[in-house]
Amino acid sequence: MKRLFFAMLGTETNTFSPIPTGLGIWRDTLLKRRRETNPTVSRGHGVYAPLFSALDRRGWHLEPGLQAFATPSGITPRNTYESLRDELLADLADAGKVDAVLLFLHGAMVADGYDDCEGDLLARVRAQVGAQVPIGAELDLHCHVTDAMLANADVLVGYKHYPHIDTYERLVDLFEIVADTTEGKVKPTMARARCRMLGMFHTTREPMSGFVEQLYALEREPGVLNAWLGHGFPYGDVPDVGACAVVVTDGDAAKAQRLAQHLRDSFFAMRDAVVTDHFSIDDAIDTALDITTTDSLPVTIADTADNTGGGAPGDSTYFLTRLLERGIGGAAIGPLYDPGAVAICHDAGVGARISLRIGGKLGLQSGTPVDVDCEVVATADRVIQTLNGGPSNIGRSASVRIGLPDSTSIDVTLCSKRVQAGSPEIFTALDIEPRSKRMLIVKSTQHFHAGFAPISSRVLYAGDRGALQSRMQDIPYRRIDTSKYWPFTDTPEFDHE
Ligand SMILES: [Zn+2]
User: Which of 263, 279, 285, 292 could be a cystine partner for 245, CB 3.0 to 4.6 Å?
Assistant: First the structure.
């Protein structure tokens, strides 16, 4: 029986985020250690059922190691990365002789001293198992595909969809290629073609949805094992940032290169159509006011620049500040990460009128703290919302009401876990009625949509201030020559490999 070692080590690093991805964030997200819980992955985890079915079909045995994932944040401290990496390598040694290695990575993890954690990890795994044992790695499409990753893995498979609805399907695709390689049926040959494009590209609408279909169509061609687009993660200021196409063929390097370049060129040709329009904060507020004079449902505005799901602090105050400065009420904002303010609200109790300093504490991109007189509307030890179809806890929370002279108010949900907005429970569980508001301002890029669109007259995206600026030209890159990248220039230099 063939033996497969399988481990996970991943996070998406926003190098502009002030919050280090320390061990506490890994523990809060996912940290299962082989020495504590063996097996760390089992059939009982529903998402892995397709992988186990594929293993069973081939008569393979799974030997799981470390499973570690962290909510996107800033640069991982060196000792945190090195200790998790070394633990994974020790698990691999402990697993004994294996026939193949499958790694569930992210591809955009940066640690202090390591621009390319995945390349470093893959090189060490390769050194440990030798050249003859196939290594496959799954990557989030928001990744930086580096030379070290390409050199040390036999095959890299990325997600095709954003939002990432195909994570576990792609894992099975990867396993099949790795197993076929081990069994001598195929010889994966990878090529990457980069295009130095920076951006976030939703695959839920054209032309990106059609592009995804093109990837599937390519995989039906004889000799093509896999094809995907690395969208890149533009909030990682590393030398390998930017989009690229990756094609894996069965032993035909020239064909892989030709197809990768073709995909890269057709993606680049769509560049002006693949980005989402974003409002400035004031334009979003003005547009929401215009809409709500004619419609009874609130307008939901996504504060995409402070999406904790992309590593942002979650405590930015730009919207709150502008609403207060302009005296505009009938608004609810949430969830705003401020455990200190939550503790004060809990201590003061429901109904208390207090002076409170809100948000703006974690870094420059959070704006400035806002001092208000407010009433504590509700408190809770936990608030469960729905995020990507599953339960998500925003932690110990409170809601406060800031009264305005015209008898309207701005209500704010304060939370103790850095979690993005997923559904209206972030308001309703804390006695804020979202339908009674003119506008709901939620901290999220896209995952809020399922929960909030049904109670909104319209959804707007605003992302000009914060850790995830929507305009790539506003991202304060220091490590790359932006004049060579789209959209800084419309004629970026491609890398021809
Ligand atoms: Zn992603």
Answer: 263
Better pLDDT: 292 or 42: 42
Residue 126 CA, distance from chain mean position: 27
365 in Cβ contact with 18 (< 8 Å): yes
Structure confidence by residue, pLDDT tens digits, 187-239: 999 999 999 999 999 898 899 999 999 999 999 999 999 999 999 999 999 99
Measured in angstroms, how far is the CA atom of residue 161 from the centroid of ligand 1?
Answer: 9
Separation CA 409–CA 425 (nearest Å): 19
Helix or strand run (H / E) with residue 234: none
432-451 mean pLDDT: 94
Q: pLDDT value at position 45?
A: 82
pTM of structure: 0.89
Confidence category of residue 391, pLDDT binned at 50, 70, 90: confident
Looking at the chain, the whole-number percentage of residues with pLDDT higher than 90 is: 87
In the chain the domains, ranked by start, together with CATH numbers, are 2-273 (3.40.50.2300), 281-469 (no CATH)
For 437, other C-beta atoms within 10 Å of its C-beta total 25
Rg (CA), the chain: 24
CA of 418 to the centre of ligand 1 (A): 17
The CA dihedral of 230, 236, 238, 242, to the nearest 10 degrees, is: 30
Mean pLDDT of the chain: 95
Q: How far is the CA of 141 from the centre of ligand 1 (A)?
A: 6
Instruction: Report how far ligand 1's centroid is from the alpha carbon of 337 (Å).
Output: 22
The rounded Å distance from CA 433 to ligand 1 centre is 32
CA-to-CA separations, 28 to 77, 316, 418, 445, 458, in angstroms, rounded: 16, 22, 10, 22, 34
> What is the distance in A from the centroid of ligand 1 to the CA of 162?
7
CA of residue 166 to ligand 1 center, whole Å: 11
Q: How far is the CA of 241 from the centre of ligand 1 (A)?
A: 14
